[in-house]
Write a structure and sequence with these properties.
With about 80 residues, the protein is an all-alpha fold. It contains two helices and no strands. It is about 55% helix and about 0% strand.
Length: about 80
């Protein structure tokens, strides 16, 4: 009967068959994947913060598209100009 290997066991066998340079490439790949995952998580957290901030400010709310008329645009708060001395 064929023995069923877990993915970890399969990976372990594959890694043991690699030479040192190939193992280094696999480790570099894993490092890249971790970095991309961390960037994605940070980006999602930032997006959540921005959405939360915007949802707390009435001036960023607009009527649903069905209730809008042509020419209606999003209403943004007026910005104060910096005073130069």
């Amino acid at each position: 009967m064929m023995e069923m290997l877990t993915n970890r066991e399969k990976l372990d066998r594959e890694i043991k068959a690699l030479d040192d340079d190939q193992v280094l490439e696999v480790l570099e790949y894993i490092s890249i994947m971790k970095s991309l995952r961390n960037q994605e998580i940070k980006s999602e957290k930032f997006s959540d913060k921005v959405r939360g901030w915007l949802s707390g400010h009435e001036e960023f709310h607009h009527p649903p598209l069905s209730g809008r008329q042509e020419g209606d645009g999003l209403k943004f708060p007026k910005l104060r100009r910096a005073v130069s001395h």
